Amino acid sequence: MKALLLAAGLGTRLNPITNYIPKCLVPINGKPLLQYWIETLIECGITEILINTHYKYEMVESFIQTSKYKDKITLIYEEKLLNTGGTILKNKYFFNEDNFMVIHADNLCFADFKGFIKTHLKSEINIVMTMMTFKTSTPSSCGIVKIDKNNIVLDFFEKVKNPPSNLANAAVYIFRKEIFTYLEEFNKENIDLSIEVIPKLKGKILTYFNNKYLRDIGDIEAYALSQIEVLKYI
User: Fold this and answer.
1) Cα gap 109→132, rounded to integer Å
2) Which of 84, 136, 161, 182 would staple 193 via disulfide (CB 3.0–4.6 Å)?
3) What count of other Cβ atoms lies within 10 Å of the Cβ of residue 88?
4) Which tens digits make up the pLDDT trace of 148-181?
5) What pTM does this model have?
6) Exposed e or buried b per residue across 6-31, where buried means at least 16 C-beta atoms within 10 angstroms of its C-beta
7) Burial class (CB in 10 A: 0-12, 13-18, 19+), 226
């Protein structure tokens, strides 16, 4: 299986840190966030990794060139940001297999990724994607899912004021190739996965609950917490 790591964001909520370094490279206990993801993916059997870049892309390129995993990594520079759906569609050529993983690399995450992959591969034929979920303490800042007894998404609430629960989208996905049919229907480059695509896939999204750890490194407070919390998992 191949994977796309989304690492092109500006990371403005982490200013002033991200004035000097891209968010995907901020150090957590001395290790760049992107390195945690690369090691996790290689360990769970991912064969090739595509990483999109934009903000301070030269620093990301330099980091990858010195990585022992560089032969498994392809970098793609986005002159303008395309959002998650747009980036997936733009790089359709890379995913020549039936299933592939897509991850927002600005989260720190520990989970049973082999179990995540196994759950997706065993899912019913009508499932287009499997979404990792977690329990969040700030539901209004996340995409919140409503699921049925079979863990299928019935409804989705993207950063609403009073969400119905705290079961959140972890921004870690596995897609079947059928996703490209939905993305191509938009007939445009910039496609927002959460706002535009996921609502069209209700009933076709399986969820997998991460009962270990996920922290969105979204602001200075979250970043500070991650420095302490990571010690339980390394």
Assistant:
1) 11
2) 84
3) 26
4) 999 999 999 999 988 999 999 999 999 999 999 9
5) 0.95
6) bbbbebebbeebbeebbbbbbebeee
7) buried
